[in-house]
Amino acid sequence: MPLIAMWIVDIIHWAGVVAGAFAFLHSLTQRADAYTAADRKTKPIWMAITGGSTAAMALFGFYGPGMIFWLAGLVASLVYIVDVRPKLIEVQRGGHNW
To answer: What is the pTM of this model?
Structure first.
């Protein structure tokens, strides 16, 4: 594999790990009652999902035999970032779009 391709693969790999760490830290700092108010799973479940996904992305590479685990970790982290996080923010701000 050419050197530039290896750099690109490494950047993608570590960008996924950073996204997972962000999702885990965000889930860690939110109030537990906000998850039930947002009609999402509980705080411990989301902490386990985002923590496990971050660990999977850190342990398995973007390019290689463990890529399926890396990809599953990325999907789990992105679900939290794209779906759960906005709902938690909305619930904690008390905003309603009526």
So the answer is: 0.88
